[in-house]
Design a protein that fits this description.
This protein is mainly alpha-helical and 89 residues long. Helices cover 60% and strands 4% of the residues. It is built from four helices and two strands. A two-stranded antiparallel ribbon has the order 1-2. The longest helix is centred in the middle third of the chain and has 20 residues. It is globular and about 45 Å long.
Length: 89
């Protein structure tokens, strides 16, 4: 039985593709999301007058594919990683 999202009542994309649950799957997707956020912070679109990074797009994609809980956990893990003083550049 797949878990459903509290907001929509439907399973997320990740829960449909990999229905098995476990701590390993959760940690793997959170780490993949943090790496995607880190890579997206380096990519810039040259808009004028302020260049735009792709971080907002990746946050939305992580939330859509993984669900609200995984998305929030990914962003919190990313912010915690930055708070520890590690550089993304």
């Amino acid at each position: 039985m797949t878990k459903t999202s509290p907001a929509t009542g439907r399973p997320s994309l990740i829960e449909r593709l990999w229905p098995s649950s476990g701590a390993g799957r959760t940690v793997a997707f959170i780490i993949a999301g943090v790496l995607a956020l880190t890579a997206s912070a380096k990519l810039q679109l040259p808009f004028w007058p302020v260049p735009m990074t792709l971080r907002s797009l990746v946050v939305l994609l992580v939330d859509v594919t993984c669900g609200a809980r995984f998305g929030a956990a990914t962003v919190l893990a990313y912010l915690f990683w930055l708070d520890q003083g590690t550089s993304i550049c």
